[in-house]
Fold each of these.
Amino acid sequence: MRLAAVDAAAQALGLAPGLALADARARLPDLVVVDHDPEADLRLLERIADICDRYTPMVALDPPDGLVLDISGCAHLFGGEAGLIADWEALAAHLGLRVRPAPAATPEAAQALARFQTVPAPDEQAALRRLPVAALRLSGETVLALRRAGLKTIGDLAARASAPLSARFGEKTTATLARLLGMRDSRIVPRRPLPALIVERRFAEPIARVEQVLTCLDDMSAEAGRALEAREAGGRRFAARLFRSDGAWRDLRVETGLPTRDPTVLARLFRERIEALADPLDPGFGFDLIRFAVPVIEPLAPSQLRLEGGALAEGELAALLDRLGTRLGRGRFRRFRPRDTHVPEQAALALPAVIAAAPVAWPRPKAGEPPLRPLHLFDPPQSIEVMAEVPDGPPHRFRWRRAMHEVTRYEGPERLAAEWWRRDDGTPGLTRDYYRVEDVRGRRFWIFRHGLYGSEAEHPGWYMHGLFA
Amino acid sequence: MSGFAEMVAATNFSFLRGASHPADLVAQAIALEQAGIGIADRNSVAGVVRAYDALKQAREKRRAELFEEVEFKLAVGARLVFADDTPDIVAYPADRTGWGRLCRLLTLGKARAQKGDCTLYLDDLLAHKEGLLLILVPPEEEEAAAPVLERLAAVSPGAVWLAATMRYRGDDRRRLARLKRLAETQGVPLLATNDVLYHAPEQRPLQDILTCIREKCTIDEAGRRLEANAERHLKAPAEMARLFRDVPEAVAESRRLLDRIAFSLEQLTYEYPHEPVPPGWAPQDWLEELVRRRLPWRYPEGTPKKVLKLLKEEFTLIRDRNYARYFLTVHDLVRFAEKKAILNQGRGSAANSAVCYILGITAVDPMRFDLLFSRFVSEERNEPPDIDVDFEHERREEVIQHIYERYGRHRAGIAATVIHYRARSAVRDVGKALGLSEDVTARLADTIWGSWGSAVDDRKAQEAGMDADNPTIRRLIDLSSKLLTFPRHLSQHVGGFVLTEGRLDETVPIGNAAMDDRTFIEWDKDDIDALGLMKVDVLALGMLTCIRKAFDLMRLHRLGDYALATIPAEESVVYDMLCKGDSIGVFQVESRAQINMLPRLAPRKFYDLVIQVAIVRPGPIEGDMVHPYLRRRAKREKVDYPAPAPEHGPPDELIGVLGKTEGVPLFQEQAMKLAIVAAKFTPAEANQLRRAMATFRHLGNIEEFRVKMVEGMVMRGYERDFAERCFRQIEGFGSYGFPESHAASFAQLVYISAWIKCRHPAVFACALLNAQPMGFYAPAQIVRDARAHGVDVRAIDVNASAWDNAIERDGGCDPALRLGLRQIDGFRRKWADSMDAARRAGAFATIEALARRAALPQRALRLLADADAFRSIGLDRRQALWEVRRTPDAELPLFAAARARELGEETDTALPTMPLSEHVATDYQMTRLSLKAHPVTFLRPFLDAEGVSSCAAIGKARNGAAVCAAGIVLIRQRPGKGNAVFVTLEDETGITNIVLWARLFELFRRPVMSARLMLVEGQVQRSPEGVVHVMATRIHDRTRLLDHLVDGEEISPPRRLAGHPRNVRILPASRDFH
């Protein structure tokens, strides 16, 4: 196992990614280690990319730790490149992120400068030329070969004719170099396709009231509707993203069965959506940007509904659960699930029906065999007085709820030991001996002796735990 | 004798199922007064010998203490678990034939499966049923057993039982009635059993944990995969009678079944294979004949009288003990190796005999060394003699395959090694099963029970910041401590072969090993010992490879023709060299501790080397025997012998034991003999003690022995301190017991390798490099040492180097060492060989010529260029690299020729010159050594600024001087108990040894563990013999300075620190990018 990433404190102590975990622990026995979770890293990166959507819709991921933003034509909204970077740095600091933004003419140059620039330079070209060849992000083997050839900086490479270079280090090297230096065109591929239609509203003063948001959404749906009308199309999905000034955002999504562009319908749907939110729309210090997008557009041509309607047989239960859940609350109705344990009272678990929606198979008793578990369980089991044989003989008679019962027939014991691993006192716990007994009147009971006679308890107690039908 | 015997008991050799040791089961069954016990593990008989041994010991103990016999019978068998739907069947051999069948059945199943598994079908059992008594264990749905039961009853009438258990599941009595009906229908008796998983109910938590480990789940998820209760333990006969009161005949049946079993492991008699004895000869006569025939070879000038006398004694002993076949078997192996020119040497008690010397099994001449042969057979243990044979490590596999070929796989097998849980794995597995997070377990497992500890205890948990009172942590500690003693799986022994005349697979099951072409038996060396089977150890030794290569080189370059036994003995220059501690690369005495010991012990004769090899070992060190010995040897202390009080024995009773070692016990035999002579152990007890020590970790209780030995000696008037030291020494021997006989054989190789190093340093370095990986040092140190001895070491070059390192002798000069292409990381042998072939037609004048003629791929060329191997073509590393990278891969000559012109026309690119420091760094990256300079040379200005003294200066500094040392870290060690950490630093002038006390180590752990380039402040400590150490007071990590070697390049990324010192990279490999 090797270290995948280290925090600033660990770095200061000399740890670096790539070090074997055993070695790291040999140096720092009290090192705190968490499992590497590349998916979680990627999710975080995606979330940060989402935040950066506020600057431009053209955001590309540069995993594992980079983002590339195409801010052509966007920067002026933030007062130029410097303003945008300042804004981002402030926002990132607020989010607890440490970032290294670098503006440049090409994506490669920006990536290289962000990662490798250590000394300031008068201009971008000079800065690029000072970077080490590693900034080309070629394979380790190529970078090493370049350095061994004495070509240690981008400037060393840029000064040379490209033909001998590509003969030795491959076309890719010279092509990457050209893109880095802006001599060859290069674009980023945004991480998600741009929606078919986008409408944006920016606010110099963030808006903080839900009513204002709704008004704004109405306005924007109308604008989107007009645009759709012009295209003779309607939207199937509508998404509004509300950017809060502190970097958080909320998404509101609405989906319709049929394409639509009717602003009143959309406005109503959004209103319902907001009202149905589990936790209310918290504007905090206010929203400074709302983006309204229509990702899926279909031609809006009226089509005939089917007369007979759709069959719902399979979905009916789910639909019922949805309806009940909406009306009564999700946690209000439950469903039993079997649990794999020897302890009888824990063998069935009542879970909210929405979680335990799928039906599960219960263990079935063998055909012709009597049931070993009663229909009804007492919780907690009720203490009873019993006359029984020692050490593990059956009860002869017992007193339950002030009535004496003579046992005529019995079967058992079924011996269930306690779950030693759940006990806090370190003892193994008492074992139960269960009997199925029948009294003179033919009533059947499930009773147990608590503790093995002699080895676990001197006078084991007896309990009534359940009733058979 | 009681009326019940448990016939279905699993031990912890039913891995991850059984939760008791075989010995505990036997002891408990005896304590419960059962009539006997049947041990049956899942498709295995791996645990039965331990049960057998436990019973034997219990009998002896009872006899000694109560003068009674234990009436108890052990039945050994296996629980057959089938790959088809057949329910489990427990099989016991009724007689020796049955045992053979059972073993072959298991061998068959194992041959079908991967390592450790066994795939059996019911038809296999039916084909091997002869002599087997079968117990069908009914499955959950007992009716399913009916057809199988019917089949079994039909083919093995009278030898089939149906097992009945009372499981406490509520329906026991109904089930019992059903089983009874089933048994009656099939005319098969019902057998009462408890289907035992452990000896006592307290083992339930452990068994639950085993279940979780097996099912790979936590105990919370395990649910009904766990047993519902703790009933599957051994129960007293009365309890069984009570439980089975409905069918008392089923209880009685257990006795009847037990009585039917007439097989005991004692019946496994061993017979040596007959191959080594030619037809018409009796083994003893043949042995004597062989020795006679070879006498002139060993003693061309006539056999000395002493040897003849020795031989006579030895022959008598061998005849009395009937050991001729053993010697012949070993001789047979050695002869094969000799024929194939595979160097080998025997060691072990029996190896130091005149017979072995004359047969060529060893090279230790009995004429010169007074090693008592009779010691090899400890009279008390009637065990076969012991000879281990070491072979060249590169060629041992040939010997192994020869054994399989000669004796057949059904007659030869490697012994097993029982792999036990280690502290780390036990904690991790138990922690996982208890549902502790990986982090908590890793913390306990990695940092606390890491490389330097093995026991699991509270204190360590507290050190790790765990609350030992927390019930879960408590359970973790308790259960892991128990699990620690458990076997985890079987693996193959390093080289212990068992060979038999009859079918080995009718004595013990044989299974596939993880390695291809290897098969191993189910018993380990203790089991083999206990049963008196014979084992030959076929081991691998790197130094033999090195010596053979050195002999070959010497012959090739007309430097002499030698064999192990013909190296000129007792040359004083060799001892002079060793006395200086100049022993890098020399067998056994090259470690730091040994190098320091050499000047102090100052060996002057062969026996001194025997002591030298034995003294730097845990035994003498733990027993605090090293310093007394050194003082007495240096005549600074009077040699006296500890003596008992006059009323207890003669004052000179230990002279015979300790005479050769100045009155200080150093060898394992001496320690054992001490127990017998001074503490009045019986020889059998001493032997038990030895075995208890060897398996100390697994069997635990040695306290009994300690009391017996220490008190025994004190009672007889010995000083308590001496007695305790003796016992500590025996403890120290533990698994590293080092007897004199081994030391003697090793000392022989010490002398031979030292002789080669002393007389032919170039050859020695060359052979050592070609035998890598082996030994203690990295190529850089070997090369450096060779140069220090005046060897001309030449760089790798395309026009001079072959795959192997080679000796060059131009015009009778001293031999020079030419580095070979194998030193280049990642280079392939086949490239080197095709270069070699192409070079015969003349030197390569250009890179293109090399690429074309040797058909080298681009990758090979790049490695050669990076290794700076084109100097003879007039290109340095950078120029070569620039050229190579545009040379196309090997292609048809026609096109290549056409292309060559094209390639020629390129203007000079004028690359900057590569500075020397960068050359050196790259040399290290490519070949882990540089002939150009030492990396520290370039850092000297920085180090001077910090007031650092060179290693050479420190070597001359006065005792107690405060110094600042710096260098590249070669080795870092924390030997033995870990009281001190040893670090070796190297700079351009030499090496400095740093000692750091454990307390300071904790303070400077980070720099100590992470520095490649270390700066140490401390004081010089100079011993009277001139051994210099720096006692560190502060440690600094100066690794960053290395970045100065290569302009603008960071060459100090992290590296793997653990592992063997010879694999340590001073500079990271070129492709070590992360």
Note: Chain A is about 30% helix and 25% strand.
Amino acid sequence: MSETRALTTRPLTPKVWEMVQSIAPVMHRSRLFGVTSPEAAAAIMLKGFELGLGLTASFEFITVIQGRPALIPRGALALVLNSGELVEFEAPIERGPKGEPLACTCRMKRRNGLEYTVRYTMDDAARAGLVKPGSGWTTYPENMLRWRAVGYCMDVLFPDITGGMKRADEFGATVDEEGNIVEGTWAPAAPAQPDPPAAPTVTLDDLLSHYSPEEIMEANDGRIPGTNDEVAAVAARLAASNG
Amino acid sequence: MVELDHLSYSSISLYQTCPRAWRYRYVEKIPTPASASLAFGSAFHSAIETIIARRAIDQPVEPVAAWTAAWEVATQQEIDYQGELPEELSNQGLRLLTHKDTADLLNSIVPMLDADGQPVIEKRVELRVPGVPVPIIGYIDTILSNGIPADFKTSTRAWTEDKAREELQPAYYLAALNQMGYSQNPSHEFQHFVFVKTKVPQIQIIPTVHPPADWLWLFGAVQEVWRGIEAGVFPPNPGSWRCSERYCEYWSRCRGRP
């Protein structure tokens, strides 16, 4: 049996909630970590707690962008590394004739054998409207490519570890070499558009290619999953028990 | 994108048979008269459910009275008889319902009783499919006292076992019951009661089994249908049995348009 924890199922007890409420105003008043309100500080701690982080460590890995908590890319990778689930990882940069970064291909493999590869190119970024003068995509293109490819790869392979949270770079935040966000440089990637429904990171078809219907049901208390969230939770449980 | 708050087995089945007919019915909401066979089936269905339900609570009703009332209700709506006579249909229903084999069968059907002591008839179920934001709503004709859900059908010809096995409706119901936490049918059985409208009526009892693999296949099919609806994909399906003047109520607007 794997020791991987289902990080999003850590129970919130009244005692923890009491601590969050008492720490949040302090973190806000301290002006550390740039939290804009006690409520934002509480949200960061709750989200971090769910993911298995300590209450104050949450501020290192989670930020609030456009009113929503997001993992900084380094935080997402830290959670994945800490889980012990990642056994193979590479993310080389492809360069053009003048040494300019063109693409990054990230390959990751889980302990249970699941493997996934994502290639993200400057053309992809341009098509998504991300490459703008003064943005991270023009000033730090290599970092942005690498963390975007790494991020997407983690989204698919480790949703159980990252709790399905969006990453700061997905909101348009600029990322430095270590995967930290560069303060104050982000802008909404698509401010005028409502978010489309999030595409599921694991589908029923994905599950069926690895597990039998009976195994899927057993991992969902004997019931057939009825929502994408249930599918993701089942995927996490099965991955953990088969890891 | 059309706004829907739910789908149903028949809605999904119609999309699979002809997406354009689905658009006429659920997007454009074009009113059409009921077909004679639909009205007949609905009346027969209602009559047998009344007979079974009333007997289960010791208030039996005569088949003739049950049929007369059900046919009266069914014919309140506009019906396209397509050359059939209402009186003949009424007599056919009476003949089928009062036939000895039908009476014997109805006497043998014991529905499960719910917590209030009421027979489980027309049990409403909701199926949730990942990636499909609306529920698929259905009504199970009855759940038998042994925990097996069952469905009543009228048909102009006898069913084969293969036809019963290939029916998708049971998979909807069994999956929905599973999601509701229903555990009294662990072997995933389903019972079809088919009333064949031949001159000498035939009654068929066809048990089938629909395991979870069937449900998951169904989920994939429902997801495909939903993606089609969401994307506004409504092509006609001229290869379908439905695409004819006789069977499609939208014929004059579509393939048969002058």
Note: Residues 36-56 of chain B form the longest helix (21 residues).
